[in-house]
């Protein structure tokens, strides 16, 4: 018994890479605009987004999740650096910044958790430094 091969016929020509890329950007832009319009309505925003009290109560698990996501993004970015050409310089630059944010956020978080009495001033700075650095990890698009 042989495997029967089926031939697929295209009914239209494929889009060029530029058209495909432009279509992707238009879809993303449309999603952002529509999301913004929906979120302008306070009742939808109150229903769809978590409350400020919930976010405050979940600060530690959310911060750990953001750090894990930052480390995963760093690992997935650093691994392919050795292979290809082209965007390597840009990817190295982004990977360097991402590594900086992961390290600083991790050190600030560690200082916050340890809460060493002799380092009260440094611990206070760690609370100030943690959120901005962890927040930058959320917006790192290294695809």
Radius of gyration: 23 Å
Note the overall shape. Answer: flat
Q: How many angstroms does the end-to-end distance come to?
A: 45 Å
Indicate how many domains the architecture comprises: 2
Describe the main β-sheet briefly: none
Record field, number of beta strands: 0
- Proportion of helical residues: over 70%
Structural class computed from helices and strand pairing? mainly alpha
Strand content: under 5%
**If you average the pLDDT, what whole number results?**
77
Unreliable spans are: none
Summed up, the helix count is 6
Please trace the helix and strand order, writing H or E for each element. Answer: HHHHHH
Structure description:
- The protein has two domains: 16-49; 51-138, no CATH class.
- The protein is built from six helices and no strands.
- The mean pLDDT is 77.
- It has helices at residues 17-39, 42-48, 52-57, 59-78, 88-114, 120-138.
- The protein is mainly α and 143 residues long.
Topology:
Layout: H1 17-39, H2 42-48, H3 52-57, H4 59-78, H5 88-114, H6 120-138
Helix pairs in contact: 4-5, 4-6, 5-6
Task: Report a brief summary of the structure.
With 143 residues, the chain is an all-alpha fold. Helices cover 71% and strands 0% of the residues.
Which key terms come to mind for this protein?
single chain, 143 residues, mainly alpha, flat
């Amino acid at each position: 018994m042989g495997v029967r091969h089926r031939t697929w016929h295209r009914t239209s020509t494929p889009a060029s890479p530029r058209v495909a890329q432009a279509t992707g950007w238009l879809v993303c832009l449309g999603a952002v605009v529509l999301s913004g319009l929906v979120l302008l309505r306070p009742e939808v925003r109150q229903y769809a987004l978590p409350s400020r009290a919930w976010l405050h109560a979940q600060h530690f698990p959310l911060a750990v999740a953001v750090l894990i996501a930052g480390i995963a993004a760093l690992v997935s970015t650093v691994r392919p650096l050795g292979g290809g050409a082209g965007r390597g310089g840009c990817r190295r630059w982004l990977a360097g910044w991402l590594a900086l944010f992961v390290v600083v956020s991790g050190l600030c978080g560690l200082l916050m958790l340890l809460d060493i009495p002799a380092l009260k001033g440094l611990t206070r700075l760690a609370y100030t430094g943690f959120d901005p650095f962890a927040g930058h990890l959320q917006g790192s698009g290294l695809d």
